[in-house]
Amino acid sequence: MVQNFDAQPTKAKDQIKTKLAKQIENPVRWCASVELMLAQGVDTFVEIGPGKVLAGTVKKIDKSAKIFNIYDGETCERL
User: Fold this and answer.
1) Distance between CA 76 and CA 42 in Å, rounded?
2) pLDDT tens across 16-73, in order?
3) N or C: which end of the chain has fewer CB within 10 A?
4) Can you give the pLDDT at residue 50?
């Protein structure tokens, strides 16, 4: 899991919990997180929830990225 607190991958459950809490209190490193995932070969992103703000940000970073938006059960089933 790449977490926005430090834009680094994390696997250990205890570290994930700690970093999730830190994300609430610290600036989010969204662009750095996306750039890391792109550099590691990720080419598809799924935004869950209303709106398309994060998907739009990914597209600004890399126009070739595949983006999917899930905002209800119906859109989830279509994927």
Assistant:
1) 20
2) 999 999 988 999 899 999 999 999 999 999 999 888 888 999 999 999 999 999 888 8
3) C
4) 87
Pairing of strands 8-9, 2-3: antiparallel
> Taking the alpha carbons of 63, 65, 71, 75 in that order, is the dihedral positive or negative?
positive
Q: How confident is the model at residue 74 (pLDDT cuts 50, 70, 90)?
A: confident
Q: Rounded to an integer, what distance in angstroms lies between the CA atom of residue 55 and that of residue 67?
A: 6
DSSP string, 32-58: HHHHHHHHTT--EEEEESSS-HHHHHH
The amino acid present at 58, given as its one-letter code, is V
Q: Model's pTM, two decimal places?
A: 0.81
Residue that is written with structure tokens 């209303």 in the block:
50
